[in-house]
Design goal:
The protein has eleven helices and twelve strands. With 367 residues, the protein is of the alpha+beta class.
């Protein structure tokens, strides 16, 4: 009888153990399925903003994390510029931090570049994950690597002490971090290839091809929502004389500086491009003629007072003429390409008027 009871007890213990193992296997299978779905989403997308959003939002929701943040090293502001372009002027995303250097992350990971799992330490980890906003007590920090170099960190927080206990397995998380790092590099390379075809190599601003595409988009948006849209055409005065007097290298340097001086006066959502030669063009969304002309006048005044230097140190006086036009909101023309041609052409006509009137001036054309 005692032996029978002992056998029954042992059988029950084994059944319980088997049920526990089966439950864990089912949970792991479900987890693997969720990871697989997440990885497929990451691999499919080429948009940098969408890629980051999947990691910060979908990953957090699918695995019931209390906090997820992403730190990316961006010393050249490349990621910031791409996000600004994709999101229409604002690179900020909740949970994303762009770092100018790797200092914070090298202090965290040291030389081994291995994941960290354990208790949240306010003294060491506050710069990585703000525990005060989520009440996290255990954390997982996963280094993101590209060709062995640290490019960022995926950071996860939990209110459960046991969720990321020291010594826990990290296979799934390390795989996710590796896949995200590859997808991130692919997205950046994709954007770099696009920029090569849409960026002026001399000045670094957008080229005419890019401008013409964006112009159609901005006109469509302005017409649909009844918003103002202004266009500026800018031309460096007597640029041929600069080339003839100081040489083409000096002329190139002048154009690079002109592009910088124009750009610094523009708003975040404005679209600037080198149209050709010494001509630049700017779209000013949601800007009526008075503010658009104010911006143009600031650009003209800044250029006139700026001290340009030749390669030999000689001072070069540079002025700029600017024509400004306004999109006709109630135009009967419905073909966007034709409307864009007239819109930009009107700014070009205003520019030629500024040239005829003596250069170094702004002419605003309102049809």
């Amino acid at each position: 009888m005692l032996l029978e009871n002992a056998l029954q007890t042992e059988n029950q213990r084994l059944r319980d153990q088997l049920q526990t193992l089966l439950a864990e296997a089912r949970l792991n299978e479900q987890k693997m399925h969720r990871f697989d779905q997440l990885e497929r989403c990451l691999i499919r997308t080429r948009s940098l903003a969408e890629l980051i959003q999947i990691l910060l939002c979908d990953f957090k929701t699918a695995f019931d994390h209390d906090a997820v943040t992403l730190l990316l090293i961006d010393p050249e502001y490349e990621i910031a510029r791409i996000l600004e372009e994709e999101k229409g002027g604002d690179a900020k995303m909740a949970g994303l931090v762009l770092l100018e250097s790797s200092f914070v992350l090298t202090n965290l990971y040291g030389d081994n570049l291995r994941p960290f799992l354990g208790a949240f330490d306010a003294g060491r980890h506050s710069a990585i994950l703000d525990s005060s906003s989520c009440g996290c007590v255990s954390v997982a920090f996963l280094p993101l690597l590209s060709q062995g170099e640290l490019i960022g960190s995926l950071n996860i927080g939990s209110r459960k002490v046991e969720r990321f206990a020291t010594g826990s397995g990290t296979d799934f998380l390390e795989r996710l971090a590796a896949i995200f790092a590859i997808c991130l590099e692919n997205a950046l390379n994709h954007e770099r290839l696009k920029l090569m075809g849409l960026t002026d190599p001399l000045t670094g601003v957008n080229n005419r091809r890019y401008f013409e595409s964006r112009c159609l988009e901005e006109i469509t948006h302005a017409q649909r929502h009844g918003l103002p849209l202004a266009c500026m055409f800018l031309d460096v005065d007597k640029f041929k004389r600069i080339n003839d007097t100081f040489g083409h290298q000096a002329g190139d340097e002048v154009l690079r500086n002109v592009a910088k001086l124009i750009k610094v006066q523009l708003r975040a959502g404005d679209v600037m491009a080198r149209y050709g030669g010494e001509e630049f063009v700017v779209l000013l969304p949601q800007a009526a003629i008075p503010p658009a002309c104010d911006i143009a006048e600031r650009i003209r005044a800044t250029m006139s007072s700026y001290s340009f230097q030749s390669l030999s140190g000689e001072s070069i006086q540079v002025t700029i003429s600017i024509g400004v036009s306004m999109l006709i909101a109630d135009s009967a023309e419905r073909d966007v390409s034709t409307l864009a041609e007239k819109f930009v052409g009107s700014a070009d006509e205003a520019l030629h008027q500024a040239k005829r009137d003596g250069r170094n001036r702004v002419v605003c054309k309102v049809d």
